[in-house]
Write the structure tokens for this entry.
Amino acid sequence: FRAITLDVTTKLPVRIDTYTLDLDKANEDDTFAKFAFHHEFSQEYGVPDLSPNSALEVSNKIMTNESIAIKYKVNMNAHGKGSEDVIKNGCNARCRRMTACHTTNSVYRDARNCFNWYDIDGFTLLSYIFDFLDGVWVNKK
């Protein structure tokens, strides 16, 4: 799990701590059912703070640096299922692009553009219709 510490005045995040649990060990013996501190986000990815510029810097690192992309994906999985595959297979340019796009886009249509997916399938068409019916909720400047 992640614990996000906010500045009392601004309510902006100042720290993101990640804790992990070895579920296999915990299932074998309850005494191992303890969460352990794993990392703090800004220290783990070498950024000065949690500002939008620093978050973008991490995304750019993911896009261009395979070891950072692997670290991010393994951390995203909390070193659990799927982590071994990422470590074994690496993270090629397509993998890095998709991971970076996920970290910079919260709107499905924008993520698809980031992935360079311009084809329209049934699901995409439905998502566009729902976006239209729901109204514009994200304004780009």
Notes: The first helix runs from residue 23 to 28.
